[in-house]
Amino acid sequence: MLEGLFDSRRWQLTFADMGSFIEGFTFTLQVVVVGLIISLVLGTVLGVFSTTRSRILRGISRVYVEFFQNTPLPVQVFFYYMAGPRLLQTVLGTPSPVRLSAFAIGAVGVGLYHAAYVSEVIRTGIESVPRGQMEAAQSQGFTRPQAYLYIILPQTFKVILPPLCNQALNLVKNTSVLALIAGGDLMYNADNFVSTYGYLQGYILACVLYFVICFPLALLVQWLEKRSKQKPRAKAIPGITPEPAKEA
Question: What does the pLDDT look like over 210-231, one tens digit per residue?
Fold first, then answer.
């Protein structure tokens, strides 16, 4: 078996089918981008809900987070795949089920799933901002939504960038769940190649392409974590900040 991994003929056949891998790679990237947008927008809204004074909004956020964090992503994706068309048929009143594309299922599936985790990241970030910031903003005439938008959230995102990038990293890897529903993603195309030829080179190439996406994100996380630990330098203000003494 190990000898087959170094068989040049198998690798030539694998690279000859590179087009399908690139197609799956591109599809995966598109799902990642749209899914990440959904998770960030919805996660931010739910994170804000979880820190408001309204019990109803806090309850909505809590129920959403608990449901999506405590049910497996494959089960959720299968539900969208099987029940989604019939639910849309009922809502839209169409004579037949509304078919959902693999792209829509993938983007919505990973987006809704990771929104629960992003919400928790946002909540902890907001709670790390001193409460006096909100009170000071409201004393200056800001409404509560304006205070969140212009004062609280900008400070929050500076704190939570590393864990947010970690969620993006996990989202990329979780797109492989689309292979379960013939999603046309990178994992699905790699699985097709291996099932057709029986060569494990297809999985190895898929791992390399996933690495191409994930490794830059992992480096970004490390860089952001190091940057967050650095003490901010005071800005020099001409005429106010004393200049450093020059060496003789």
Answer: 999 889 888 888 887 777 666 5
